[in-house]
Design goal:
This protein is mostly helical and 415 residues long. The chain has 19 helices and no strands. The protein has a single domain, classed as Growth Hormone, Chain: A. Helix 2 runs parallel beside helix 5, helix 2 runs antiparallel to helix 17 and helix 3 runs antiparallel to helix 7. The protein is globular and about 55 Å long. The C terminus is likely disordered.
């Protein structure tokens, strides 16, 4: 790749990182607003759980559709359409006054945001080699952590000053500016090869591979814990730990900043080890497995400690460990799937992974309503992490490009 092409691809990567940052700001601002929204609209913890969960029902379900779309059509316009949908649905929340309509807005938000990961996965696998893919994915993943950090810190402070409705309107309409550079700069040379896009394996062939289920179950554990924190951390810090809204905005953002930094370090270090001769399979699996396991070890005692700031420190350590996993998980999937199956596999993986986002907000809301405490919610997250670690490491096997029946048939025809 010449220097001009490399600069162009890096600009596209920067736009992808920014878009994922916006993506997670838009989905996370409801969590920051939850204490005020629940008060203004007289919503119970169970109803707030439904609001958090509804997003993931549509987000998970439409991953399959989005994976097919980005493998079949021009990813530039598929992604732009999804971005437009999720931005407008974010803005709409600032104009809504009833619980049922809020549910609809969250459902539409999930539909729009479902396109993000399949689109990113296809673009990265086509334009970054194995030795650079870890850091490229880590940058995208860091955007998903900076987003919640900003929504918690800046969003919390702005909501405290201007109210939650104004923040939803500003975020939703303001983010539309991103579409301008995307439409102008996003051109991927390989995207013009329609023939290449149509030779990939079908969904059934991907689902028959045990590696698919290993990555999906690992993503389920990540999704469960990640969206447990994304949805309920502000409420936990305010209601259980007694922090003010402004203190929550600062302290509650720290774990997300730490996870972003950890993801970048993990992606850079894994790529570095591979370029120095390390076995890609061993390197990436070590980061992923240790990340899930250490996250469980850190998150288990959070609700037991008496000191509120120590609980924040443990949550930060858990997010650092989770960053080790998330920095390599997409590189593993992209290597296994290859360019022919990256979009579909990512859609399947994110669909199953985000079922964790469906389960954890609802289950947490039910636990808090029943017990008045987050203790059992943190223990449930620990159990999910342990099971996810076992499934991930036992089912994936060696990380190398899989051979698809479509490829085998094409090679036999040529021979």
């Amino acid at each position: 790749m010449n220097s001009a092409a490399l600069r162009h691809v890096n600009w596209i990567l920067a736009l992808l990182v920014l878009s994922l940052c916006i993506n997670y700001i838009d989905r996370g601002v409801l969590s920051v607003s939850a204490p005020l929204i629940s008060k203004d609209l007289s919503l119970s913890p169970t109803q707030m759980g439904w609001l958090f969960s509804t997003f993931f029902w549509s987000y998970a379900a439409f991953q399959i559709v989005s994976g097919w779309l980005v493998d079949r059509f021009a990813v530039k316009w598929v992604y732009a359409g999804g971005f437009l949908i999720w931005s407008l649905s974010t803005a709409a929340v600032g104009l809504i006054y009833s619980f049922p309509v809020l549910l609809v807005a969250r459902f539409v938000l999930g539909v729009g945001e479902s396109v993000a990961y399949p689109a990113c996965s296809r673009i990265l696998v086509e334009n970054f080699p194995e030795s650079r893919r870890g850091f490229a994915n880590a940058l995208v993943d860091a955007g998903t952590k900076v987003g919640p950090g900003l929504s918690t810190l800046v969003g919390g402070l702005l909501i405290n000053m201007y109210g939650w409705r104004a923040v939803f309107l500003i975020l939703g309409f303001g983010s539309l500016v991103w579409l301008l550079p995307w439409a102008a700069w996003m051109t991927v040379p390989s995207e013009t090869s329609v023939e290449n896009n149509r030779k990939g394996p079908g969904m059934s062939e991907i689902l028959r591979r045990r590696q698919t289920w290993g990555t999906c179950l690992g993503m389920f554990s990540l999704g469960y814990v990640w969206y447990f924190l994304l949805s309920w951390l502000p409420s936990y810090l305010v209601n259980d730990r007694g922090f003010s809204l402004s203190a929550m905005a600062v302290l509650g953002s720290i774990p997300f900043w730490a996870m972003a930094a950890s993801s970048l370090c993990g992606g850079f270090l894994s790529d570095f080890l591979i370029t120095r001769g390390g076995n890609p399979s061993k390197v990436r699996k070590s980061f992923a497995g240790c990340g899930l396991l250490l996250c469980g070890a850190a998150i288990a005692p959070v609700a037991f400690v008496a000191d509120a700031r120590l609980s924040v420190a443990l949550l930060t350590a858990a997010c650092v460990a989770l960053g080790m996993f998330s920095s390599n998980v997409w590189a593993i999937t992209q290597t296994l799937a290859g360019p022919l199956a990256a979009g579909k596999w990512t859609g399947i993986q994110n669909a199953i992974g985000n079922l964790g986002g469906v389960v954890s907000p609802l289950l947490t809301g039910w636990i808090v309503s029943l017990t008045g405490s987050f203790l059992l919610a943190f223990l449930a997250a620990t159990a999910v992490l342990l099971l996810g670690t076992i499934a991930y490491l036992s089912l994936i096997g060696e990380i190398r490009p899989l051979v698809w029946l479509q490829e085998t048939s094409a090679q036999e025809a040529v021979a």
